[in-house]
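Minutes, project check-in
Item: structure for the 463-residue chain
Input as provided by the requester:
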Amino acid sequence: MEYAFKTLSVAKFGGSLLDVEGKGIPKIIKRVQELKKKDDLGPIAVFSAPMGCTDALIRIGESYAQSTPQPADGVFDIYVNLAKTHVKGKLQKQALDAIADYKAQTLTALDSINKRFSGNIKAKILTLGGELTMATLMHYILKSQGLDATSLLLENWPIVTDDNFEDATPNYNQSQKRSHTLIEPLEEGKIVCLGGFLGVTADGLETILGRGGSDLTAVFASCLLRNIYSTETLLYKDVPVQSADPKVVRGQKTTHVKALTYNEAHKASMMGMKIVQSPAIAMARRHGQPLLVVPIDCPSDFSVIQAETQGGEVVKCLTGKAGCAILSMNDEKSHSLEDSLRIWERRNDFLDLGAETLETGERVRDFLFLDSDFLQKSEERLKGFDENLKIEYGLGVVTLIGDRMKDSPGVASLAIGAISGINIKRGIFAPHTSQIIIVVEDKNVNATVAAIHLKKQEMNRTK
C-alpha cells in the first residue's frame, strides 16, 4: 500500500494528433510535460499509429495475401522523417536503429503470410508497423526534450487478452500479474510510452483490441493500476465534444458538452460521434473509472464521462451517421442470424427494430445496420439464413442523446416538427434508452441534424 496516495495520469494521444508530418508532436510534448509536473508519477502516455498508417498496413498485408506484395517503405519513411525532425544528437541514431528493427520484423511477418491476412499475423503486422514503432519513437522524442522516458518491449507487455486475435478482450487477473512492468519504471520516475491497440495472449502471441483500441489500452491501464495509484484517464482529441459537429450545423452556435454519463457516451459514439471506443466505455463503467476527453489545444474544455448525470440538459448532443441500411427477413429465421452476429462474430453495430405481421401472414423482422459496407460484402452469406431477405441501402441515422429525455415529454414531437420537409424512413422513439433515432436518406443526414439542432434550446425547456 506504499503507493496508495500517489497520483498518476494515463494519457492517450490518438492518430488524429499524430499526423504524418508531426505537426501535433510539439503539442503532445507540452501536455506530457504538464502531466509530469502535475502528478507524483508518470505519466503513462499511450500512442496510436500515425493517421493512415493502420489502413496502409492493412492494404500491404492484403497485397501479400494475394501474392502481389506492395512495399512497406512508405509507412516506415514516416517514422524516419519524424525521427530526423524531432530527435536530437545520439538519440536520433538510436531511434533510427529502433525503427529499422521494427521494419525488419514487420517485413519478416509479411513474408510469412500464406493466403490469409488475419489472426495473429495481422495483429503482429499492424502493431509492429504501427503503435509499437510510434511509442518507441515518442520515447526518444521525449528524451530529446530532457524527459526521462522509456517504452515497453513486447516480452514485457502488461495487457494480457483472450485469444480473439482481431478483437481481443483484456483479462484483468492475468494482466495484474504483469502490472510490475508498468509499476517499476513509474517508481523509477520514468514516463512510460505505451503502444495502444496491442495485447498479448497468455502465451505471448500478439492480439489487437479492435478498431480504436488505443482508447481501451489507456482505460485498461488506468483500471489495472487504480488500486495502487490514484489514476486519471485523459483521452486527448483534436477538438472538444460539442452539441453537434460545427461543420454540419454551419452558422449555428454549438455548445461544449461538459459531462456525459457512460450510457450517453456509448450511445453517441456508436451512432457517429466517435467520442470513445465502446469497449473502453464498458471497461470504465465496470471499474467506476471516470474518463476525461480533452481537446489538446484547450485542455480546460474537457468533457467528463462518468456514472452520474451532471447538468440539467435534456438533449446533450445530436449526431448523424451515413452509410446505414435496413435488413428485413423472416422473423423465425432472424434469430439464428442475430445469434451468429452477436455471439460468434461479436458484432453490436446493429439494432433490432422489431417484427410485424404482413397482410400475407408472414412475420417479418427488421434490423438497422450502422455499417452498410458489411452488408454489401456479406449479402450472399447472409442469404444463407433467409434467401428472401431484403436490404434497403442509402440510409443514414440522426440521433438525439440524453439520459433526461425519458422524463421530458415532447422532445420527439419537436424533432419531427423541425424536419417536416424531410422524408423519415423510420423513427425509433425510445427516450428511456437515452436516444431518439430518426432514419432518413443518406443525402438528408446533415440537413436533419442542422434542423433539429436549431430546436435544441427549446427541447431543453421541455423538462
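Outcome recorded: The chain has a mean pLDDT of 93.
No further action items on this chain.
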